[in-house]
Amino acid sequence: xxxxxxxxxxxxxxxxxxxxxxxxxxxxxxxxxxxxxxxxxxxxxxxxxxxxxxxxxxxxxxxxxxxxxxxxxxxxxxxxxxxxxxxxxxxxxxxxxxxxxxxxxxxxxxxxxxxxxxxxxxxxxxxxxxxxxxxxxxxxxxxxxxxxxxxxxxxxxxxxxxx
Length: 163
Fold this sequence. Notes:
alpha/beta, 13% strand, 45% helix
């Protein structure tokens, strides 16, 4: 039995993204994998007999993702490459990162996430939570947050502000 089949049996599911994850993993890869998680969980819920009688509640808590330096706020936040463990684990230290490409990929992944969650809204009640009190100088994160909120609204996904 897969983890997603087991998870689909729960009535309340929370997926939390701790702040440390953005230092430990490439945020672009992580957002792509988050879309995959949503699709796998949705498929498992659809296949479950229990979904016919009980709807589950699924929360995705982004925490401070839109506050983080990479990739949205590289221009406004100084960062120390030694603090980003994933760069060294994946041999990024020998090449210069393309922050613009990372940002574009991350934005696309977040659009896909909103679409995937919106498609499953009839079976489960999904809510996305994120800290939205972004500093004025962090325009990249603020713009990405607004774009994501618009995509959530287009796909009928509930978005909740977390201070």
